[in-house]
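Hello,

Following up on my earlier ticket. Below are the two sequence lines again, exactly as submitted.
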Amino acid sequence: SQTIHQWPATLVQPVGSPLSLECTVEGTSNPNLYWYRQAAGRGLQLLFYSVGIGQISSEVPQNLSASRPQDRQFILSSKKLLLSDSGFYLCASRTGAANEKLFFGSGTQLSVL
Amino acid sequence: GENVEQHPSTLSVQEGDSAVIKCTYSDSASNYFPWYKQELGKRPQLIIDIRSNVGEKKDQRIAVTLNKTAKHFSLHITETQPEDSAVYFCAASDTGGFKTIFGAGTRLFVKA
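Thanks for your patience. The regenerated structure is below:
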């Protein structure tokens, strides 16, 4: 089965600072990759998804961006963090076949102060 | 795009009672409906899923039902136990299987 490595587990950043969260996947090839955000006590909001290297689809306009430099690597970035960027960020992976289940990483708790 | 509504947002039951969580979806072309359980501070994990060609699926104390006509699906947990306490998310997947859209979640408390 797939294993999702996500780091760091916890991050505290000042407003206006940059961000880089990395996610790597093991145990599958050509996965669909996803970034979700979960605000405190809220649901899972889809931010970005990628069906292949260099292919990024954005679901929510914001100051975040995503990149996929390698097949099993997905990066979430920001040039300048906002207070509203605080939340629990989850990377997820799915095999290329439709309707397969999502595997989630362990998440990054981001606090922007 | 797809929109998933989930109710209730909070549910408190006595140990041994049943719990029911309901979801509706907007895109009639969605055909895969997973349910995830998230314990505090941990990643969501799939507990059961159902595809649109099936009306009901059961796995021990957990069952899911799907009404495609009404675009409703529900999670049923019987004989609840304290370890069932968690946040539960329903979700719907679009026809391409690329995106999974989640409901807002239900926080379930099972009182011993």
